[in-house]
């Protein structure tokens, strides 16, 4: 994953943490999702805008109240989902 996407993940994670601390996080889903085609990780919080992976196969639209996962084609059988903190500690993206 490029440095731009890593910085975006950090920014969204920081905002998500602040919302949780303030008691404004009502979303049950707070995990990062990985595109099975290009390997990009997407955060669950995107400020209500759709954020696409680099190959445009997977998109996330997330706020503090909902997370919507979008697929350009058919939904894959399995998606890799991990804690955002765990993804940020990884070095291979």
Average predicted local confidence, pLDDT: 83
Shape: globular
Distance between the termini: 4 Å
Helix content: 25-40%
Approximate strand percentage = 15-25%
Largest sheet: 3 strands, antiparallel
Radius of gyration, whole Å:
12 Å
**What are the low-pLDDT stretches, counting only 5+ consecutive residues below 50?**
none
Q: So how many helices?
A: 2
Beta strands, count:
6
Total separate domains? 1
SSE order in H/E notation?
Answer: HEEEEEEH
Structure class: alpha+beta
Describe the structure.
- It holds the Pfam family DUF7695.
- InterPro entries: DUF7695.
- This is DUF7695 domain-containing protein.
- The protein is α+β, with helices and mostly antiparallel strands and 93 residues long.
- The strands form 2 sheets. It has a 3-stranded antiparallel β-sheet with strand order 2-1-6. Strands 3-4-5 form a 3-stranded antiparallel β-sheet, with no helix packed on it.
- It contains 2 helices and 6 strands.
- It has one domain (3-89).
- The longest helix has 19 residues, at 3-21.
